[in-house]
Amino acid sequence: MGPELSNITASTNGETDLWEDISLDWSMVSAPQLNDYDFSLGVRGLFYPNGSTPIEPNATAPVMPYRDNLNEDKVQVFLSTYTMNSLASTFLNTTGFSLLITNDILPPTVPIQLNTKFLDVFLPGLAAKYGNDSLVDLRLNLTSLNNIDIKKQNETLSCHVDLAMEFLVH
Question: Taking the domains of the chain in order of start, what are their residue ranges?
Fold first, then answer.
């Protein structure tokens, strides 16, 4: 490794604050490779909240390729499920993800109405308590996103998601 890269790695301990609340442990898993054709670098790729101790995700850090020789792209980036799981967990713990759905943003072709009359079928007693024509907003909060799994063979991405729903009656 050249002296410049060694100095950067030593001065940061292989860690960088990326966003306001998220850090990345990019410490090198092995020495970079340099040859006549390319420069290859492998890093740990563990995201964690700033100021906290990094917590390993539920995925095992795999041995990643440096280069796909069957692909002629000049820049190649490989992301593992380990990195994706740590990013998802850290993002939800620091930033979170919430979505507010109101009746007026639903397209007319959607057969769902966000009002007490329609939702009373799923939440019995809602119309009796709040009236038959009250509008309802739906707030979705993503509380967990884990077990991200990426399969190259059949080009699929899967994950486990926990979602909290709040019904806000007007």
Answer: 1-95, 96-170
